[in-house]
């Protein structure tokens, strides 16, 4: 039993599978396309919303340091992702990497985790996009009919038609081809980066030095019962995180980490990249560096424009400009946020379909979903299926409380990838590696520690829901995946089918 659960798929076979005509994706992306995808998915709700939340509740002006801490944690993981993505340029990201290093069951677990992460992320962002659009419509004097607007906070039955429509439109774009998706993303990313730069430049002239005093506010104990938000910290160390102070910065880092989610999605497009050995590391690391720099500058500007204790939680950037007598910028920022969230939604959906596609090609999910479109060379079947499911989910369900599941799913993937780098270095030192993670095993170990630290800062409810989803995943694997995988049908990794082989 143990030998079958941890059977690995050879890297060479994974690459050969990408050459099967009916299961091969079209290679059309460059390093610039990948960087644009990364920036497109990272810059979203986080920079427009979370800055005010963590500044007011956890870190004050030191929110900039929280973004740096979260960025460092992501950078450690990004170095590991870059090595894997250039060595195993196959769709599936952490799932594919785990299959090559840790074995089938760990690969299934991480794939199942990523499906949840990207699905909830897409739905959450779609609902947020709908809220921005409705706000802009109300400013113009238009109101959505009752029952067709946002479901957030609503008690009555309704359907968020804007959120569902966005997901369906983006599904159609992804079916038509990656290059079209890249072109649309480039245009949208240019718009929202322009908005961010305007915020930084215009806001810099409105900074008041007094608002930075104190830069790190005095530490305050959490309110009674608030320690339940981070039960593992109290269990392991005997204390709960504090608001403000040095520990407040780390608490804030676990919150603003949500703003960085997405750079790992770049790795899911490895199979569709023209020169993945060269371009994947550039796309992953380049997009993360650009976004971290923008995040730090925005947080410095907004906490300098308005005292952290007075920042709004819902729209801190827009409201900071209103408070300084520049309401025009508020509408401009809302427009940029609405436009920018479209790419976040599309790229998260792209990532999910590629993971699903890779799992079906390996037989862990029905092989029916691994056929590509004869003309567009895209995985149209899983794209359409998942797009419809997520559209329904986004339309009917208020998802704010589930957003933390996206965080824990991403961090779990980071842990697995970092461990996989160490294992593959030991088991396959002969593999050609266009990019090598420096200081192995130090960097991967630091990545694991940083990710685990952020995970234990997440609410107890998040861990419970995550455990339930994982239990469901084990059930599906043992009832279907273990007996239908291509490795099960063709023996061990030493006897895998050649190109064109396998079950149709």
Q: Please give the share of residues in helix.
A: 55-70%
Average per-residue pLDDT, rounded, comes to: 83
Number of helices: 19
Gross morphology is globular
- Structure class: mainly alpha
Number of strands: 0
> In whole angstroms, how far apart are the ends?
26 Å
- Helices and strands, in order, run as HHHHHHHHHHHHHHHHHHH
Strand content: under 5%
Unreliable parts: 151-156, 224-229, 231-240, 492-504
Outline the biggest β-sheet: none
Oligomer state equals single chain
| Alpha-carbon Rg, integer | 22 Å
Subcellular location: Membrane
GO molecular function: amino acid transmembrane transporter activity
Pfam family, one: AA_permease_2
Keywords: Membrane, Transmembrane, Transmembrane helix, Transport
Can you tag this structure with a few keywords?
about 500 residues; mainly alpha; 19 helices; globular; transmembrane; AA/rel_permease1; membrane; amino acid transmembrane transporter activity; transmembrane helix
